[in-house]
């Protein structure tokens, strides 16, 4: 998951959009827990 700093969206909106896209792609299954914030932070 990569979030551009100059996208014009707030960080929380970018995260929400990224999680939604992961659900649509099947990477995150509906009803499952989101990744830990530390894991998300490490990937950025």
Biggest β-sheet, characterized?
A: none
Residues in β-strands, percent: under 5%
Give the count of structural domains. Answer: 1
Bulk shape: globular
Total helical segments: 2
Give me the strand/helix succession: HH
The structure class reads mainly alpha
Q: What's the gyration radius in Å?
A: 11 Å
Structure overview:
There is one protein chain. This protein has 44 residues and is mainly alpha-helical. It has one domain. The chain is 48% helix and 0% strand. The chain contains two helices and no strands.
Topology readout:
Layout: H1 11-25, H2 37-42
List the main descriptive attributes of the protein structure presented here.
mainly alpha; 44 residues
Summarize this entry quickly.
The protein has 44 residues and is mostly helical.
């Amino acid at each position: 998951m990569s979030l551009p700093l100059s996208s014009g969206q707030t960080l929380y909106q970018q995260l929400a959009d990224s999680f939604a896209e992961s659900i649509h792609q099947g990477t995150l299954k509906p009803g499952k827990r989101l990744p830990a914030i530390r894991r998300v932070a490490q990937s950025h």
